[in-house]
Amino acid sequence: MKGMLKFLIAAAVFTGVAESDSTSFTIHVAGDSTVQTYKDSAYPQTGWGQVLGYFFDGARVKVNNAALGGRSSRNFIEEGRLDGIMNAAQKGDYLLVQFGHNDRDYSKEARYVKPEDFPGYIQQFVDAGKKKGVNVILVSPMNLNGSRNVFSTGSNNYDARGMMQTIAKNNKIPFVDLNMKSYNLYNATYKNIPDYVTRYLYKKLEKGEYPNYPDGVNDGTTHFQEMGSMGHAQLICEELEDNLKNNTNLSDEAKAALTTLVSTIKKRYTIKVQTNLSNYNGLITQTQYFPAGSPMTLRVTPNGQTFEKWVDDDCNELSTKQIYYGFKTKARDITYTAMFKGGSACQKIDHGEEGQGGDGPTSSSSGGTGSSASIDTSLCFTGVADTLWRSPIDMSKPEISDGSTDTDHPGYTGVGFYNLTNASTSKAVYNITSDQSASNARVMVRYAFAGTANRDMKITIDKGTYDVAFPPTGSWDKWDTVYIEDVWVDALDFQVTLASTTNDGGPNVDMIAFDIKGVYRTGCSPAKVVNDANDTTLTIVKPVREMRVQPATAKTFNALGRKVPASESRRNQPAGRYYSR
Ligand code: GCU
């Protein structure tokens, strides 16, 4: 079953970039630590190659980010990485090349490249591409944080920019001047807010700002946060478009290839960020230009003023956290406002409807928002959720199932409940979209089961599998709830799988709910949430009694496989402590 499932998923993903589709291709990326892809455990650290896919039509473009920290143009080639790219590449693919940071590092022999040798190595990338029919594009290295542009001309500088520009010119290929674009961004656009560059774009993090860096980290000159790399990816797109318009030095072949590449760049929307104060003088996220479905962070660092919440242009509350991350941008221009105490009241801002894919699919290499074409809208939650369970999800009709959708036991919510076949192999699989990421979400499962022995199930949510006990509720008509703690959820599409562990299948399952906002059946919309948790008419589920049930096999590992110390596990706290109703 598992193998079959994997196959189905692989097949579904693969149809996006079918081999027979001559208009689909891969963008390969060669570079260093400012470009590479990082693990979730390093978040918010991000390289631009990691997020480039958000800017391209995911149905036609795949990104192969081969960049790796510590690599210069020389050791990247010496280690066989250029050969590796060319072995994987197809004629008609693209290769973006950015080097300079480690080439310039004269303190490390393994990396250093004498300036006079640099052009020779970069030319090797161009030649390898020519041989294979891969379109090479040179990207000059972004500036280090500061007013001196070490990758440009000037005494004691390493003019990677100038050398790459010359090579691009000689070979009549595009030159993406990320160096000058980033220099101007840090030193002109954001000239008066240097702390913004250091703390919001580069990786200088204060203690406690991000869970992965509890003690903070002082890397404010070289490496980037997600928003820094998203901004660089946006600059790269601007430069590609600019080359197509203004670079008169391209070969016919390079121009044709660039035309195709630029046609796959997605429409960018204006994401305006403001406050409700006229005299705000702290830091705040600056206006961005990202395609729909991009990861976005909203952030303020007040300077004396009291921050209350983030709201969107419909005055919906998004978060009361100063750093709000892990959500995706919409398919329309949008304004976000940081509301401060003493500022003007929220005023709705007129805006158009969200786009419906008229500008191409919203999916990217790192997971899209899924198709809404085939969703049975009766499965979408249309009520108003309470603040305790912000994301209620109907479980009566799974996408993949061993069982039936039934209505013969009253008390269920929505259109019915799901009855898993009485067998140890029974499964129900649901496609879920999350607009948010969380490392400690709480999930509730509403079920009924008239029996004597437990009908425990393994429940998989995103990357984590949890052993969940389902003790009898006394009657098939009596619904109750169990909870799963510390659930890791990424802001993307994933599946929830209910798998029985006994020959009796599982209990009848009515719904699940997440305590975080913005988790829903793929193709539906996030549930609306009211602020009044005491309004019982709006409460979707009132557990009959407290059941914080976890069996002896309860997970002691969190979803990423990290062991959760007993002291940190909320499950080991006295019952009722977190659920006082
Ligand atoms: C009964 C009950 C069903 C339930 C089944 C079971 O038939 O009516 O709703 O699913 O038992 O044992 O699973």
Blueprint of the fold:
Layout: H1 2-14, E1 25-30, H2 48-51, E2 61-65, H3 73-78, H4 81-88, E3 94-97, H5 118-132, E4 135-139, H6 160-171, E5 175-176, H7 178-189, H8 194-201, E6 202-205, E7 217-224, H9 226-246, H10 252-263, E8 269-275, E9 283-284, E10 288-290, E11 295-301, E12 307-311, E13 317-319, E14 323-328, E15 334-340, E16 384-385, E17 391-394, E18 400-401, E19 403-406, E20 417-420, E21 427-434, E22 438-448, E23 457-461, E24 464-468, E25 480-489, E26 493-500, E27 508-514, E28 519-521, E29 528-529
Helix pairs in contact: 5-6, 9-10
Bound molecules: alpha-D-glucopyranuronic acid (GCU).
Alpha-D-glucopyranuronic acid is lined by residues 406, 409, 419, 422, 476, 504-505, 508.
Q: What does this molecule look like?
A:
The strands form 7 sheets. Strands 17, 19, 20, 22, 25 and 27 form a 6-stranded antiparallel beta sheet that branches. Strands 18, 21, 23, 24, 26 and 28 form a 6-stranded antiparallel beta sheet that branches. The protein has 10 helices and 29 strands. Helix 5 packs parallel to helix 6 (160-171) and helix 9 packs across helix 10 (252-263). Helices cover 19% and strands 26% of the residues. It has 581 residues and is α+β, with helices and mostly antiparallel strands. Residues 1-21, 357-373 and 532-581 have low confidence and may be disordered. Residues 406, 409, 419, 422, 476, 504-505, 508 line the site of alpha-D-glucopyranuronic acid (GCU). Alpha-D-glucopyranuronic acid (GCU) binds at residues 406, 409, 419, 422, 476, 504-505, 508.
What is the terminal-to-terminal distance?
40 Å
Query: Nearest-angstrom radius of gyration?
Result: 26 Å
Oligomer: single chain
Average pLDDT metric? 84
Query: Biggest sheet, in brief?
Result: 6 strands, antiparallel
Low-confidence stretches: 1-21, 357-373, 532-581
Q: Give every kind of bound small molecule, once each.
A: alpha-D-glucopyranuronic acid
Which bin fits the share of residues in helices?
A: 10-25%
